Every structure is written in C-alpha cells, then in structure tokens.
Amino acid sequence: MVLAGLGLALTAPITSYADSEVLHDNDDVDGRLDLARVSHTHVDHRLVHTIRMQQGWRARVLKGGELTLLFKSGSRYRTVEIDYKRHRLVGTICRDERLSGGELTNCSKEVGLARPDGRTVTVTLWKRQVRKAGRQGYKWQVTSFLEGGEGECPRRRFCVDELPGVDPWIRHGLRD
Q1: Residue 92: which residues within 8 A CB-CB, separation 6 or more?
Q2: Domain ranges of the chain
Q3: H-helix or E-strand containing 11?
Q4: What is the DSSP string of 119-158?
Q5: Which residues pair with 20 in a beta bridge?
Q6: Residue 13: is the preceding peptide bond cis (ω within 30°)?
Q7: pTM over 0.85
Q8: What is the pLDDT of residues 19-63, one digit of tens each?
C-alpha cells in the first residue's frame, strides 16, 4: 500500500517551481569582494537575492569597486548596480542595452538593500522589475569587481569574481 502511494507520488507531474536556491563559490579571488555564496528566493511578488562574501567588508570598499546583478528574461536584460554613496549602500536597477551596443537606461532607485551582517548584502526587487511579461522565470548572475589596491586586491590588478562561473546564468522559476 505504501509502495503504491509512493509510486503514484513519483509519477505525478511537477507543477511548482523552486522557491529558493543557494550556490557556493570557492575562495578563489583576492580582495574583500570575493564571493562565498549567492541565493535567491521569492515571497509573494518580491524577489530576494542574498550575496555573501568570503570575509567581512565595509560598504565603503565599493568606492573602488562594484557589485552587480544582471537579470535576463527572454530578450530583456536588467542590471542592478550597488554603489557606495553618501556613506551608505545604494541600489539602482536599469534596463541594460549594452549587449546590443546601447547603454543603461530607465534607471530607478526601487531596490531594497539590507546588510544583515558584515559579510552579506540582501537585494529585494519586485518580480515585474526583472521578469518579462508572460515569462515564468528569469536567469541571473552576480559579479564583484575591485580596482587594484582596494581591500587586499593587489595594486596594478583588477579583482573580479562571478557566480556562477562556468554557466553564466542561475535559473529561477516563478509562480504567478
């Protein structure tokens, strides 16, 4: 009886998407913005992306660096840039036309940022900001960049880290 129920459960179609996923990165880059792991989840109509570094970092390290999330839904690209301005972190989301020879356009400050601890930043967005209408999901990636001499990144070097590494996209399915 139990085996019959288990067989039925295993053959039932999967109708929901994963609510969250965590990807880990090796300690592979010098500098304060060496990625340790990234994760995503969704709650109602909000998307939460968490970026954790290998070690602690102060927000002002972004004076000499950049933390970027790139989203792709269909043929639509959106970029979130996290910068240090006026003694705090600021997130901006823009339409990204750079892959087709354009630039960042239609930028908005509708990005929620939080620092739950000294190694982590959490980015909160609305689904409509990254998902193309009619699509059930999106892809995303994280890039950190430091100029030489900033936060243990050796002088005359650029320290860049990306997640994921080989496949440039993390896939995230969404429920409506």
Answers
A1: 80, 81, 83, 107, 108, 109, 111
A2: 19-173
A3: helix 2-11
A4: TEEEEEEEHHHHSPTT-SEEEEEEEEEEETTSTTPPTT-E
A5: 41
A6: no
A7: no
A8: 667 777 776 776 778 888 999 888 878 899 999 999 898 888 888
